[in-house]
Write a structure and sequence with these properties.
Layout (H helix, E strand, L loop, with lengths): L1 H31 L3 E2 L12 E2 L2 H16 L4 H21 L5 H17 L7 E4 L2 E4 L2 H22 L5 H19 L3 H21 L8 H17 L13 H5 L1 H16 L12 H7 L4 H24 L2 H23 L7
Antiparallel strand pairs: 1-2, 3-4
Helix pairs in contact: 1-2, 1-7, 2-3, 2-7, 2-8, 3-4, 3-8, 4-5, 5-8, 5-10, 6-7, 6-8, 6-12, 7-8, 12-13
Length: about 350
């Protein structure tokens, strides 16, 4: 165990150093190519143009840390191929030359690559007291729905300086704890490398941000965390452990659910940009940007801890934690819906 922890620590340090070095380089490259987010007075309220390509820095540091510290099995290669596809899809979208349907197609291609490598939900049904694999198309559909949701959840969440990157880092810590507890070396290594890339990026993404994730970064983080959460082991104590990854990634899931519901209530398309996000409503309540981001980070930490407890608890305790967590999130969402948002 001590040797494994040391190896994970070294991979994290290597990835962090790479990310700290590569992130400002990517920011400079983005400015030279004109790949910047310009203020629009609506969702983008920063004063000066801010470079994209933070996601490229995370991707490169993640990949290089794995090259020096990990063996590449079939599943890992599939994960990297899928991540590369979604990074390119997001990068093209950052240039503003991709239609929503093209973006959706690119996401599906990345998901198919992941499924073909063997990374997908494992569902079994019980027949005559013996487990039998469920129909493959059911697992594939569930996998596609989960990953599509996670990618777009982080895309929705990436609305303020430090928000999506910080939530990804904290949720990643929860997934790292799960993998260490279950002695899953492969997942622990992948999560450690992802944490390192996110941590280095966050140094430059704190308010006022010098670089943004861009669609390339938010989609990449959503895919990686969604995939790594999906293949973890959660049900040794009770079947309710299946809710553990849902809680660990609870804030991004709440973000996409809440924002979509708020837009539907107003008769707007779900994918139409609007200030209906959780963070924007918290700021409308009078909170500063940093206070808003801090609250979202704290909520992510609490949900991650709840997810770990659900995995470790017996059935009754896990059920109680799940009910309390979802009731609290429901009340939080209802309070946010009462906040009046000026639609620009």
């Amino acid at each position: 165990m001590k040797t494994e922890i040391l190896r994970l620590f070294l991979i994290f340090i290597l990835g962090l150093a790479l990310s700290l070095y590569l992130t400002p380089l990517m920011a400079e490259a983005a400015r030279r190519f004109g790949l910047v987010a310009k203020p629009d007075g609506k969702l983008r309220v920063h004063k000066e143009p801010v470079a994209y390509m933070g996601g490229v820095a995370i991707y490169l540091s993640f990949l290089l840390a794995l090259v020096f510290g990990f063996g590449f099995e079939k599943e890992v290669l599939g994960l990297l191929l899928s991540g590369t596809i979604i990074l390119l899809v997001g990068l093209i979208d950052d240039f503003g030359v991709m239609t929503p349907w093209m973006k959706l197609f690119g996401q599906l291609v990345a998901i198919i690559a992941l499924i073909k490598s063997g990374i997908h939900f494992q569902i079994q049904v019980i027949l005559d007291a013996e487990p039998w694999p469920a129909f493959p198309f059911l697992t594939w559909l569930l996998t596609a729905f989960w990953l599509m949701t996670m990618m777009n959840a982080f895309n929705f969440l990436d609305i303020e300086d430090g928000l999506a990157g910080g939530v990804a880092f904290i949720s990643g810590l929860g997934l790292l704890a799960v993998s260490v507890i279950n002695h899953n070396e492969m997942i622990a290594t992948l999560v450690a490398a992802m944490l390192a890339g996110s941590a280095g990026f966050l140094v430059y993404n704190f308010s006022p941000a010098k670089i943004y994730l861009g669609d390339a970064g938010s989609l990449f983080l959503g895919l990686m965390l969604g995939a790594l959460a999906m293949v973890g082991s959660y049900t040794e104590r009770s079947n309710l452990g299946l809710f553990a990854p849902v809680l660990i990634l609870g804030l991004p899931l709440m973000e996409i659910s809440f924002t979509s519901f708020a837009r539907l209530l107003q008769g707007k398309p779900i994918m139409q940009g609007s200030p209906d996000h959780i963070a924007k409503r918290l700021q409308k309540m009078g909170l500063s940007l940093r206070a808003t981001v801090s609250i979202c980070w704290a909520l992510t930490a609490v949900l991650s801890a709840a997810g770990l407890l659900v995995m470790l608890a017996d059935f009754r305790a896990a059920l109680l934690i799940i009910i309390i967590s979802f009731c609290c999130l429901l009340v939080f969402g209802l309070l946010l819906l009462r906040v009046k948002i000026e639609q620009k």
